[in-house]
Amino acid sequence: MNRRNFMLRASAALAASSLHSAEDLKLTDCHVYLGENPFRQLGAENTASFVQSLAARGVTEAWAGAFEGLLRRDVAVVNRDLAQACQGTMLRPCGTINLSLPDWQDDVQRCAEDHGMRVLRLHPNYHGYDLQAPAFRELLPLALKHRLLIQLVVQMEDERTQHPRVRVSPVDLTPLSTMLQEMKDMRIMLLNANAAMLLRHLQNCTNVWLDFAMIEGVGGVENLLKTWPQERLVFGSFAPVFYWESARLKMQESALSPAQAAAVHWQSAAGLLA
User: Which residues form the Amidohydrolase-related domain (predicted)?
Assistant: First the structure.
């Protein structure tokens, strides 16, 4: 091998090594919240300090919804403020859509066209509708038209710990399987679903993604991946409601291959918005 070929090969190997290292450092947290939680102070009221805390933990991109979207009626203002707060940061804003309000279709259009959002976050149980509502069936093709991913939050917290005047049950996922089998191009990410919900309703749906924020048990992520495809599982911390470190520990305590870890850390999320 002459000197020129040696240098070219060495440079290529170094470049490949650097690229691999950069990919290994990627971490997309698909489930965080900004703003003021209506029930207690959690630490996401100041965007700059919250982003700094995520970056210190190795997060390179985070998908953020707005706590204010749970109970406020003027979601147009909520989404505008969220988009402004996320601008210039690692945060990807996830617009709130309340299907029980009039003209929600305009909010979808504003999210997509005015704010450049790629993700919508729904809270059906807080907004007073179920998945059999005509508006939900109308939303699916509209989101597909605008190339929007839907995140469906199944539950925000256990019913036993909720404020006694604002108690909501988890979203009933039963109707979702039939809808998604009819709309093969539609993609939905479930947030805060547990393993029993998935096995009962959505095991055979190939267009459903989920985070692991409420997947419990020792080796929970490892056990889930025995029956759930790695390319449809994403990293979701549910910060600041949950301590962020609990998500890291769920990954560390599970025996995952490098391919599985990379898929959960960032590849699955990147493929969704490609």
Answer: 41-240
